Amino acid sequence: MLWPATDRYGLEPAPGGLAFVQDLLNTISAGKPREPDLLEDVEDAQTWLAQALANWSGEARRPAPVLEITAEELQGLRDFRHDLRRHLQAAGTDASPQSHPVASLTAAPTALRLDADGRIRAEARGTGWRQVTSLAMIEAYEAQCTDSLRRLKSCRNTRCAVVFFDRSRNNSGVWHDVRICGNAVNLRNHRARKRATAETT
Questions:
Q1: Which phi and psi (to 5°) does residue 165 adopt?
Q2: Which of 2, 27, 158, 44 is nearest to 84 (CA)?
Q3: HEC states along 96-136?
Q4: What is the DSSP letter of 123?
């Protein structure tokens, strides 16, 4: 199953419904050469959303909601993506979560439903971009309950910042690809140290 945003960066998707959250976060413009922002206009956003929801349906084994995103709603979805990325980045540092307010993350309407099999399920509510945020928040919360959300990380290379799922045993990964981003950052840091040394001698 190819997730349209995440696959552009050669990344393996996160497990289960968390892949939907990862794909939303990876709609950003990143990479070299830079990929387009999939939430830049309505046509691209709707194309991404249709495929991402179809994939989510396959993972969750539940019907995908049919959603339409209008031009007026795009900014709300981009703002949510930005806030969620900030929260993810703050969670991967020593920064206090309180110092990174994420106001729009609370604006995700949900409902609880008791299924015939006795399981309680959270259902996304709202319309348009609000239902997208609700679905993403539900998947993020369920991943948090299984302790897998903390493995969803933003690449430490600020020129990259794509979101990857850390599959290392001790959850110590910081680059989406050590060869691409880790080596590039280490080389830049090495050159900066050499320049600093040369300037002081």
A1: -105, 115
A2: 27
A3: CHHHCCCHHHHCCCEEEEECCCCCEEEEECCCHHHHHHHHH
A4: E
For 197, other C-beta atoms within 10 Å of its C-beta total 9
| One-letter identity of residue 178 | V
Task: Render pLDDT for 34-86 as a digit per residue (tens, 0 to 9).
Answer: 899 999 999 999 999 999 999 999 999 889 988 989 998 999 999 999 999 98
Contact 86, 102 (CB under 8 A): yes
Residue 10 is given by DSSP the state T
What's the residue count for the chain?
201
In the block, tokens 């609700």 appear at 134
- Whose tokens are 């050159």? That residue is 191
Measured CA angle at 13 (ends 134, 82), to 5 deg: 45
Output the six-digit token pair for 182: 């880790």
